[in-house]
Write a structure and sequence with these properties.
Aspartate Aminotransferase, domain 2; 7-stranded mixed sheet
Length: 452
């Protein structure tokens, strides 16, 4: 074996050559900005219509029609869209809302604003989505809704969840911010619950800037959401019990989406299906080539189920340290990164362990806000529960490259990086002093993409 061959086979972390040598930053750049996008945004700027609503209405109608929902209502971000959906669904003082612990904080923290209490459920280790088997025993007379998060592009098990919701007469709010265009058994996510909300911020699969959107088929949900934060559109309110309150925003906030994002979004709705198809092709190709390696396993829908991951936002693999001699995820990830590929350990940290949900008094009630809206007999201990999967999941999943283009030769280099580390994992064991105790983060999008 020549010295050059030895250097290529030696792990880059230990002084060898990198497996990924191609310089293609556009392979990961997102969103893809075209001249159509630029011209659409310039037209809005030059007409000085940034705060108008006509283009926004066009965007809402076009998007709602595309996914098959009656009403769309655009917001300045996805956080506000979820808040508007909660208010639209009638969530309020003393209500409980069940939500998975593994998700971005904006899936449920807004419940505090409405005087409601989040109740956390565990997640399925195979999907990182809410585990239907951990929902029903958390339902109480105070439970009003289930927030379903299609986490990291993976559709949740909607059949089981909708059965539980129907049995207990609960509302379902889908947070589909990670899963634009994803299908669950052939039906698009965001079309199952009474309401759905999507973030449309720059990093999401369907990115239009800093924006969000609510979807529903229920006129009352739609009009209540308008009443709460879209005062300029109160002329759309037709329900007699809401009409007397029109004129001022019921929530005291302005949720309007600016039309630079609306204009960008109208173009993006045309281009996204083709982009999504290419991302899906690239990501499945990458996963197929790594499918049978020990220690790592793609998190994706089973083939032949007509369930898909849409644009594959924030894609992950599972990690099995035992199959790699006990190699820590942190050490494994550093080795992949040294090869020039992307491997960020963990995912969102479990929300149920954050002090905001265990002790913080946000509004000065003299007790944790988690129980501030309940009767005096409520204790924080009643709401702080052990969730074993959520508490361990950040130590056994990792983020992989999110390819935006199908470039087989370059994808092959990233595959080679993973294969090289797996096949030579024993060389990493001697220096493995890493501890997988602080993987992931509460704001994963911003903390995990240093290498993209």
């Amino acid at each position: 074996m020549t010295r050059e061959t030895e250097t290529k086979k030696k792990l880059a972390l230990l002084g060898g050559d990198k497996a990924v040598t191609s310089e293609r930053p556009d392979l990961f750049a997102w969103p893809i900005v075209t001249e159509r996008h630029e011209q659409a945004v310039l037209d809005v700027m030059r007409s000085r219509q940034m705060s108008g609503i006509e283009l926004t209405k066009q965007f809402e109608q076009k998007y709602a029609q595309a996914i098959g929902r009656k009403y769309g209502l655009a917001y300045h971000n996805g956080t506000a869209a979820i808040l508007g959906a909660m208010y639209g669904l009638g969530i309020g003082l003393g209500d409980e809302v069940i939500c998975p612990s593994i998700t971005y904080w904006a899936s449920v923290v807004q419940a505090y604003t409405l005087g409601a209490t989040p109740v956390f459920a565990d997640v399925d280790p195979e999907t990182i989505c809410i585990d239907p088997a951990d929902i029903e025993h958390r339902i109480t007379p105070r439970t009003k809704a289930i927030v379903v998060v299609h986490y990291a592009g993976m559709p949740a098990e909607m059949d089981a969840i909708m059965t539980i919701a129907g049995k207990h007469k609960l509302k379902v709010l889908e947070d589909a911010s990670h899963a634009h265009g994803a299908l669950y058994k052939g039906k698009e996510v965001g079309t199952f619950g009474e309401a759905a909300a999507f973030s449309l911020m720059t990093g999401k699969s369907l990115a239009v800037g800093e924006a969000g959107i609510l979807f529903t088929d229920d006129r009352e949900v739609y009009e209540r959401a308008i009443l709460f934060g879209h005062y300029i559109r109160h002329n759309e309110i037709t329900l007699e019990d809401l009409k007397p309150f029109a004129g001022l925003p019921a929530g005291g906030s302005k949720h309007r989406m600016h039309q630079l994002s609306s204009a960008f979004g109208l173009v993006q709705l045309d281009l996204y299906p083709k982009q999504m198809a290419e991302i899906d092709k690239a990501m499945n190709h990458f996963c197929d080539l790594l499918e049978n390696l020990p220690g790592i396993k793609p998190i994706r829908p089973a083939k032949g189920t007509n369930t898909t991951k849409g644009g594959w936002y924030y894609p992950h693999f599972r990690y099995n340290a035992e199959e790699l001699g006990g190699l820590s995820l942190s050490r494994f990830s550093k080795a992949i990164q040294a090869e020039g590929s992307i491997c960020n350990p963990g995912c969102n940290k479990p929300l149920h362990l954050h002090p905001l949900f265990t002790k913080q008094d946000v509004y000065g009630h003299g007790k944790p806000t988690r129980i501030a809206f309940l009767d005096k007999s409520a204790t924080i201990e009643q709401y702080v529960r052990k969730l074993p999967v959520a508490e361990s999941i950040t130590q056994c999943v990792f983020e992989i490259p999110w390819f935006k283009h199908y470039e087989p030769e370059i994808i092959a280099e990233h595959v080679a990086a993973y294969k090289k580390v797996v096949e030579n994992h024993e060389a990493l064991l001697a220096g493995d002093t890493d501890k997988d105790t602080d993987t992931g983060g509460y704001s994963s999008f911003f903390s995990s993409r240093k290498n993209t």
